[in-house]
């Protein structure tokens, strides 16, 4: 397998950081009350949608870090979640704490992808999902889900921001080029 395979995920990690910075910058136009206003979305508010992304990213990164291949860029402290946390937990009620956590997590993701080899992507990943159901599939499928999940929920957040009168601007992946 050639280096283009991991390079694709490195590109997605750069896009992830770029979009998160744009999204969080756009959120600064709103008060804390407006960011936390229930807007009828799956996770209710803009704030909670962004919190869900941080939680889900940490859960997935923990799964990646728990495979046979070890990554120095995925330290346990960066992935720690309190006992009993799930994808709906509100671990970052403070906006600045959430923003700093997101930025640090995006840095971890980029360092991890810089370290990744093609062999990891073709390895079989084993883990249990949030309901405890055992899973096994190629790591590249989980990687694709990881980035697709982020894009999906950022799309929800940008819609909520537009409804609140805030335009995030261009969100196209190709705009990063």
pLDDT under 50 segments (min length 5)?
none
Percent helix range: 55-70%
Record field, number of beta strands: 2
What structural category characterises the helix and strand content? mainly alpha
The shape is: globular
Rounded average pLDDT = 93
* Biggest sheet statistics: 2 strands, antiparallel
* Rg result: 16 Å
Percent in strands? 5-15%
Count of alpha/pi helices: 7
How far is the N terminus from the C terminus?
24 Å
Following the backbone from N to C, one meets helices and strands in this order, namely HHHHHHEEH
Strand order of the largest sheet: 1-2
What does this 3D model show about the protein?
- With 177 residues, the chain is mostly helical.
- It contains seven helices and two strands; from the N terminus they run ααααααββα.
- A two-stranded antiparallel ribbon has the order 1-2.
For the structure shown, list the relevant keywords.
177 residues; two-stranded antiparallel ribbon; 7 helices
Layout of helices and strands, plus pairs?
Blueprint: H1 4-27, H2 32-35, H3 46-65, H4 76-79, H5 95-115, H6 118-122, E1 124-128, E2 134-138, H7 139-163
Helix pairs in contact: 1-5, 1-7, 3-5, 3-7
Brief sketch in words of this structure:
With about 180 residues, the protein is mainly α.
